[in-house]
Amino acid sequence: MKITIPWLKNKKATTGRVAVAMGPDGLRVVNINAAGAVDFCCSYPQAGEAEQILRGLVDEHDWQDKPCSLVLHPLYYQLTLAESPEVQAGEMAEAVRWRLKDLVDYPLSDAAVDYFSLPKDAYRGRKSMLYVAVMRKNSLQSLVQPIEAAGLALDCIEVSELALHNLSAALPEVRGGTAILHLLEGEGFINLIEDGQIYLSRKMDIGYSSFAGEGDHLQQFEALLLEIQRSLDFYESQLGKGIISNLFYSPAISATADLGDFLSMQLGVNVAPLNVSALVQSDLPAAELALAVTALGAATGPGKQASSQPNNQSGNQSNHAKGAVNAAH
Fold first, then answer.
1. What is the Cα gyration radius of the chain?
2. In angstroms, rounded to a whole number, what is the distance separating the alpha carbons of residues 100 and 80?
């Protein structure tokens, strides 16, 4: 989701883009150069040292005033499925905000809110639905502050689900729907998409740290399998869509290899790792790119660096956000 930030100052435009995925597990920082290639990608476990890390990178690589995208970790916001209000387009943002009055335990005036709509044929066309992302304004500003202080020109904020979805346009076209499972250290989510549109996104409480180390991880694999199967069943029975034919899992690292093998044996779909190296232009190590997949999606998404999606032939667009975060310093 692209969240417009009215209170950010206009800054000198430069070519390329930096993207920062920020979470309790650290930072993932990528840079897309003017040619649309990823020439920097690195992970930093020290989340509390964000400003110091970013200042050093800005000085070292001359990124001062460079456009920057921030990707929010799923723990930082609440993503809720809601029925779309039947109002005029100009009234939608306020109507969506009002829908949250019983879902948050703090004043709506303290909430940063945005949303994106599901396709019209979701839920068999019976009702219009959308996803709403909400978090406290002061929490959002605490994440923005180190990026601005480092000298980057922050111009958009994205939730992880849509940052990852930006890369899906570069996947080869397949018949049927596609599932993309993304795991962070302690949690994850799954996107179910068809024709370039998200129909379902669900959070999961299992991350790839559950599979770390030696031993039998069958119990964790089975718990994750159950969540995936529930999502696939809901996609078919409640949303009225066809079958999911492909599932990509991310990150494609050694910690998830056994999980991929397990899912291949248990699910009646084609299961494969999400090969980020094939979706972006880069000579950097595949494992490092895999860990920064949401930052890569934020940096190379529609309207940012179209040339960095060489395999996108479909012309399909991601679900577009409609609202804005009306926060102030």
1. 19
2. 9
Backbone angles phi, psi at 253, to 5 degrees: -125, 175
- The rounded distance, in Å, linking the Cα atoms of 197 and 231 is 16
Which one-letter DSSP state was computed for residue 276? G
Contact 107, 97 (CB under 8 A): no
For 38, the token pair is 């990823």
Mention every residue, 6+ apart, whose C-beta is less than 8 A from residue 261. Answer: none
Residue with tokens 């335990």: 105
**Secondary structure letter of residue 279 according to DSSP:** T
d(CA 265, CA 35): 41
Distance CA 174, CA 49 (A): 42
- Interior CA angle at 193 toward 274 and 170, to 5°? 45
- Distance, in Å, from the CA atom of 44 to the CA atom of 143, rounded to the nearest integer, reads 15
2 contacts 324 by C-beta, under 8 angstroms:
no
What residues are paired with 28 via a beta bridge?
A: 21, 43
Strand order, beta sheet including 111-117: 78-83, 129-136, 111-117
pLDDT tens per residue, range 115-144? 999 998 888 877 889 999 999 999 999 999
pLDDT tens digits for 87-123? 988 899 999 999 888 888 899 999 999 999 999 888 8
Q: Which residues contact 263 (CB under 8 A, 6 or more apart)?
A: 221, 225, 228, 247, 249, 271
Task: Give this prediction's pTM.
Answer: 0.86
C-alpha 98: how far from its chain's center? Answer: 25
Is the CB of residue 248 less than 8 Å from the CB of residue 274? yes
The number of residues in the chain equals 329
Query: Dihedral of CA 267/189/297/254: which sign?
Result: negative
